[in-house]
Each structure stands twice: as C-alpha cells, then as structure tokens.
C-alpha cells in the first residue's frame, strides 16, 4: 500500500513534476485572485493543510512580513464570483462546492442519516456558510480555559483581543440603528483598516420584525445586552460577515487571499494531503496527491506543518499519520506513531428543528417591501435573535442540571471509551452542570425573522459523537457519527426549547394574528413530542468541533495550549476541531479568533 512511503527516508523525495501553468490572474468581479499553485518549491517554512477559514487566515498572517515561505495545500478549488455575490447560503447543497458526506444512521433519530455539509473550495466553509457573525459568552470561553488547565490563556480575557483582531466592524446606518434598536459596543470590536474581513449590518430592515423584538424583550428575565459580542446572553442584533460597500460575502478568501500578491505565499489547489511525514515524532513535511489519483508527492516543512483541514478531515489526517486511538489504527493496519485516544472523539455540533406556525387567515403584520436601498438577496442569515440561558427559559433548569450531574459519566459514551477520554468527559460534565445553571450561557438560539415560528437550536449538546477513519478504507471519507440524542439530557433540553417557542408565540403582540402551530401541533406533548423530535431533529448546524480538542492528553485532548499535537514536535492543528466545547454561537468567528491567536503562538516560537 501507499503506506510504506511513510517509512521511506525523507531523502528519497520523488521528483515533483508540476504542470507549468503561467501565474495567472483571474478577474473575479471587483477583486483579483492570483493562482499561485503553478510551481511549488521543495521546501517551505510553513506547510498549511487546507485553504479554509483558519488556513487562509494563517497563511496571510504568516507570510505578511515576507520572511517566511508558506504553502497551502487545498483539496478543492476557487468558487465563482457569482456565488459570493449571492451570499445567502443557498449553495449549501450545491454538490460542486461542498463535500458529499453522510453520517452513519442515527439510532435515536429513527435511523436517519444526516448530510455532513462542509465547504469544498478555497475559503472552505466560510465560503458557503450562513454568514451569521456571533461569539459565544464569557463563561463558555472561560470553560475552554478551565478544560485546558491552570494558566490557560483561552479564557474570555485571553480570546477577546483576537476576536477584535479577526474582523473589521462596520456599525449599522443611523437610520437602521434607530428604527430597529441596533446597539453595539465599539470596545469589543476591531476596525483595522487593513483587515478586509468585514462584520456589517444590512442597511434596511423588515418592519414585521418589530413586534417580534417587542415580544421577546418582554419575555421573563430576558436580558438585552448592548452588544452580544461582549460575551453576554440575551436579545440582540448581530452583524453578518459581509462587505457593506457592495453587500457581498466577506470570507477567508476575500479577506486573506484575494489581491495579495506575495512571492512567499503559495497555494496549490486540487491536491489532497494524505499524511504527515515525520522524523521520529518531529513533523518534517506532508505527503499529498493530485485529487483522485494515487500519485505521491511530498513537500518539506522547515518550521512547521499546520493542519487546518476542519473538524471532519483533521482527525483523518492525524489517524492516517499514525496519531490516534491505538486500537483503531491497528484495525486499519496503520503503524502507531503516537497512541492518542482523543483524536476523532469528543465530537459536538449544534442541533435544531423547526416549530412551524402560521397566522390566522387574512391577518398578520404588514409584510415588507424593502424599505431602504438594499437588496434582500444580499442579506444572509438572521441579524436578530435571542440567545438564552436555561434558567431564563425554564424553572426546571435545576432539575435538568441535577439530573445531568447525577449521571454516571461513562453511561452514555461509546462502549470502550478510553479512560483519558472519559476523564475529559467528567471535566466537561462538571463544567456543563455549571453552564446549565448560568443565565450567561446560551443554551437556546431563537433567531427572529419577522415570521411566526421557526428554528429552535440547542447551542450546547452533552451527547458526544465520533469522526474516525473507516478502518477498511482509511483514505475514503471518514465515518461521522453524531450520536445524536444518545444522552437523554439533550432530548429534555429540546423539549424545553419547543415549549419556549410556544410561550413566545403566546405573547400579547401576536394575539390579534391568531397564531396556530402547524408542526408538531400544540397538542403534541410528552412521549409524542419526543417521538416527533426523533423524526425531525437535525443534529448539526454545520458547526462541527472538538475532534482534536485542546485539552491535556490525560483528559483525552489532542492539542496542548499552544495547539501543538501532544507528543509531537513542529505539528499544530489550527481550525474548528480544537474547540473543546461549543461556544453558544455559530462557529466561524471563533475559528477566525483561533487562527489569529495561533499566529501569535507560532510567532512566539520564531525566535
Ligand atoms: C452550510 C454551513 C453554514 C454555516 N453557517 C454559519 C454561520 O452562519 N455562521 C457561522 O459563524 N458559522 C457558520 N458555519 C460554520 C463555519 O463556517 C465553520 O465553523 C468554519 O468555517 C470552519 O472553519 P475551519 O477552518 O475549521 O474549516 P473549513 O473552513 O471547512 O476549512 C477546511 C479546509 O480544508 C480542506 N481540506 C480538508 N481535507 C483536506 C485534505 N486532506 N487535503 C487538503 N485540503 C483539505 C477543505 O477542502 C477546506 O477548504 C457554517 C458552516 C456550513 C458548512
Ligand atoms: C454522493 O455520494 C453518494 C453515496 O456515496 C452517491 O450515490 C452520490 O452520487 C454522490 N453525489 C455526488 C454529487 O457526488
Ligand atoms: C426598541 O426597544 C424599545 C424598548 O424595549 C421598544 O419599546 C421598541 O418597540 C423597540 N423598537 C423596535 C423597533 O424594536
Ligand atoms: C532525523 O533526526 C535526527 C536527529 O535530529 C537527524 O540526525 C537525522 O539526520 C534526521 N533524519 C533525516 C532523514 O532527516
Ligand atoms: C409592496 O410593493 C407592492 C408592489 O410594488 C405594492 O403593491 C405594495 O403595496 C407594497 N407593500 C408595502 C407594505 O409597501
Ligand atoms: C439583488 O441582487 C441579485 C443578485 O445579485 C440581483 O439578481 C437582483 O437583480 C438584485 N435586485 C435588486 C432589486 O437590485
């Protein structure tokens, strides 16, 4: 098998024959993409795996001062300009720009499978996401630090500077702010003129959203923070990752790749990284192949290999390199370089479903035409939502928290879970029992669109899944198992989410419009409601995390506080997979923050 190559000495480089494409500048609307993949060198200072959200951010920053050569290797290719302009996320299912992966059947979802949608293009998932640009709350990032151990700098104070660095905030227009109660705290945002990753608001609003704002503001104990980005829960407006000059998507490619012509920043597309090359346990380069071929190519990394392949593929690359759970590697006949049981474990994602409502015939708020100059098709996900702690949702929070606390930690984890992974889950559980009782941790996201009913999303899950290689075919797509609802607490919380939506729709603001619940139907409760949840639950909002979690090795962690893979040298993971627990927020802003913080961690070792 190809695998023998791993053990071959590094001096035995295969000659790299590249099609000599002329360095080509392609016009992409207002911006230029230079395709630099034409000829790669034998060695680079940094080799980055994956030109996604984190990968391009790193590549831009690490190449900026011109001192270090950076190569990014990407399996996919740049997408068209049109896709950026449309920017409303409707390309989620376009087979051309996302991976074609399906989970294994989920036993607690009536054996349904779930499409695992992740971006396949230069820009990765930031190119196809819903553009909602939010952060989690202070206790959630403090939890990242708690799980990291004493002295961790991943607490709220330690991540805030990197959140500020990661984007360029554009406040809403005065009219928008006045008409729709949009407030913000400039102290928690950055506005570096050189940063082209924009966080902006649309310049118009839908009047029918106003009664929703009013009704939510009146819900019991509903906090209304000046700005959710200051690490608070409650009802607030959030920006989208959008350039407010042309209302186009702002993403890792437009911010950290387009228009950047540097001799020391190379990207090669349509090539798949198969494994990391080592001398002992020191990473020395990577082995990769042109897409869909077995041709073997290698490149040397003089300083570091950085894996930014995202939560689904990062564990695959590690496992195929001999870093992962020993039993699994042996089953796949992969020589064990480092027995690291946490690789591919701890997998978490947000879970949601839709509770459908309709207004009585001939009633409802006046539906808008666009009231100001703007274009509906340029706005993406929702900009207004309620992000709610469990004690704000229900008086039963204490019952749920103590029920969770009294569980045996091993009870709902996969059989044969390694003792270190179990130790990590114990720490996670202790932390989550605390978060369940906190009004400052987001357990429910209820986006407000100005129409009745809609999405209720669980922003924390206590069921942990796995993403592992298929031992029969380690180079094929990995086996994704959400293990959705495997812990019954997640079901209890989803029931509370639905009840909260029902309470909300009973608000006096809506009474004249006679809302009716069409699915599941207001009479559906108890075991029937649980049955319905199993039928409709979507166990992902495409926010996968934690398969290379930043935790100590003895707690089932994969990377240390500097994001270095435990037991290795010169190998880091920088992407969504390092998050040890979900932020109560969509994940892109946290990924950009992680990349910005990683840049400083990497630079600290350049001396
Ligand atoms: C449909 C969808 C909607 C979303 N909506 C939102 C939203 O509204 N708001 C929000 O905040 N977040 C949202 N997210 C989540 C957010 O976009 C992701 O959390 C984030 O972009 C992940 O960044 P990443 O760097 O970890 O991985 P990615 O950006 O996915 O990058 C990984 C890159 O690695 C490449 N790669 C993988 N394996 C290999 C290999 N072996 N060799 C070479 N290259 C490889 C991939 O092709 C990809 O380009 C959404 C995601 C999706 C998919
Ligand atoms: C996706 O994968 C499935 C099953 O492996 C296959 O049947 C289908 O044709 C694939 N779709 C695309 C667009 O490649
Ligand atoms: C703004 O907030 C105030 C106070 O909560 C409320 O009365 C008003 O209706 C809100 N306006 C809009 C446009 O949501
Ligand atoms: C591997 O590392 C050792 C110790 O640093 C060094 O002596 C040796 O030359 C290296 N081997 C290769 C093939 O680079
Ligand atoms: C919206 O536009 C249509 C067509 O121009 C018009 O008939 C309708 O009255 C408008 N509605 C509102 C609420 O402005
Ligand atoms: C809005 O944008 C879309 C896509 O860019 C375009 O097709 C459409 O014509 C625009 N509509 C208006 C009213 O400008």
Automatic annotation (TrEMBL):
Key words of the record: FAD, Flavoprotein, Signal
GO terms under biological process: secondary metabolite biosynthetic process
Keyword field contains Electron transport: no
PANTHER family xrefs: DEHYDROGENASE XPTC-RELATED, GLUCOSE-METHANOL-CHOLINE GMC OXIDOREDUCTASE
Entry-linked SUPFAM superfamilies: FAD-linked reductases, C-terminal domain, FAD/NAD(P)-binding domain
Family: Belongs to the GMC oxidoreductase family.
Family matches, as Pfam families: GMC_oxred_C (PF05199), GMC_oxred_N (PF00732)
Superkingdom, natural source: Eukaryota
Entry GO MF terms: flavin adenine dinucleotide binding; oxidoreductase activity, acting on CH-OH group of donors
Residues that, per the record, bind FAD: 129-132, 273, 576
InterPro entries: FAD/NAD-bd_sf (IPR036188), GMC_OxRdtase (IPR012132), GMC_OxRdtase_N (IPR000172), GMC_OxRtase_C (IPR007867)
Stated name of the protein: GMC oxidoreductase
Essential cofactor(s): FAD
Domain Glucose-methanol-choline oxidoreductase N-terminal stretches: 119-142, 310-324
Signal peptide: 1-22
